[in-house]
Amino acid sequence: MNDLAFDTTPNSLEAYWMPFTPNRAWKRDPRFVSRAQGMHYVTPDGRQILDAIAGLWCVNAGHCHPRIVEAIRHQAGQLDYASSFGLGHPAAFEYANRLTEMAPDGFNRVFFAGSGSEAVDTALKLALAHHAIRGEGQRVKLIGRQRSYHGVGFGGLSVAGIGAQRKHYGPLLPGTSHLPHTHDPARNAFSRGRPEHGGIAFAEALEGIIQAQDPSTIAAVIVEPVAGSTGVLVPPVGYLERLREVCDRHNLLLIFDEVVTGFGRLGAPFGSQALGVMPDLICCAKGMTNGAVPMGGVLVNDRVAAGLMSQPEGMAEFMHGYTYSGHPLAAAAALATLQVYQEEGLFQRAADIAGTWEDAVHSLHDVPGVTDIRNIGLLAAIEFGPQEDKPSPARAIAARCFDKGVLIRAAGDSLVLSPPLIVSTDQINEIVETIRWAARAG
Ligand code: PMP
């Protein structure tokens, strides 16, 4: 089949309202890609762009992997859709079995959704339902964290901690509060991996938040194990462990939003395994299908699942779900993706190359304007704080990198990096040297 004829004159760009994009400015200076393979995008005029962000933290096995493409093709010809409400199809059951085999011990059930946002809202509702069926229906309050992103549903937005994204939407869910974020450049700048300072104190702030209200009214705490889109904020040593302890002390569920850290990003199937702390619910999406078909899900531990399954039979155990939960195309793509991850050993590959990655990104420490560098697994952020009253150059640097053939994302003051797990040492060098050039070219 031929490529879609593509008209890029301004009028033909009006109808598509792009998300999280300053549409009018973007459309005066648009950038397109029309193909992709492996580590690269290709622009309509044939330029290769090295993808240093795996699409949007999702294309972990590289673009258009033939096994995944073929699985989607095959499924589309076999069964396009089946209602997820009370009608089964093989791919969703098969994938649920394979996924829970790979998940941490004690996570033997998965509830499917269509995106990360849906996974987060599903997890928040599961937490409330968990308490309600145990006779603690007063536990309805949720605790999130500053500088966290949990998608755009009303629940996820309420627990997330990005003020600018809450603007215009009123008070959102009542009773939500927020932990302090863990970014502490005064003590932890240029840490390699987990920062040394402040972990226990940052986590103990949870105790204060709990004590400021009636602890028996709180349902759950939700955090990203590593905050991704707010600038790759790596948890300091001891932080997640102490959060777990405080949650246990007060019978709160701990939810990890692993939409970014899932599927090998930290060198293990899930961040919980890489970081050695187990939550009660794990939200995932993105790398689940290698980004090829929208899909999300919540892995549920046995304790939460047993409670919900103990209700009288005959009614849905959880009054929740989506038209596209466990969609055949998504399930087939996810199944093929998991096979690719396993057969190509990509999670181990990420673990093996993480040291090279760390050395390469930290080699940028003396580039003019760099104020912090953070990394863990195959994630990194290069921070360019504001200088002499001028805004951070991060966005301009990312734009120059694209023009030079490397796709990087600016998140606030930082460039954020999350290459596909197949990235080579040469490509790591290309990413880092392009940033070095772009920072100096400003
Ligand atoms: N949680 C986290 C941690 C994310 O990074 C994202 C997406 N960047 C989401 C949730 C929302 O996922 P989606 O955009 O698929 O709804």
From TrEMBL:
Signal peptide, first to last residue: none
The keyword Transferase appears for this protein: yes
GO biological process, one term: biotin biosynthetic process
InterPro entries: Aminotrans_3, Aminotrans_3_PPA_site, PyrdxlP-dep_Trfase, PyrdxlP-dep_Trfase_major, PyrdxlP-dep_Trfase_small
Segments forming a coiled coil: none
Keywords, sorted A to Z: Aminotransferase, Pyridoxal phosphate, Pyruvate, Transferase
Co-factor(s): pyridoxal 5'-phosphate
Keyword Cell inner membrane belongs to the record: no
Database matches in Pfam families: Aminotran_3
Molecular functions per Gene Ontology: adenosylmethionine-8-amino-7-oxononanoate transaminase activity; pyridoxal phosphate binding
PANTHER family, A to Z: ADENOSYLMETHIONINE-8-AMINO-7-OXONONANOATE AMINOTRANSFERASE, BETA-ALANINE--PYRUVATE AMINOTRANSFERASE
Family assignment from sequence similarity: Belongs to the class-III pyridoxal-phosphate-dependent aminotransferase family.
Protein name: Beta-alanine--pyruvate transaminase
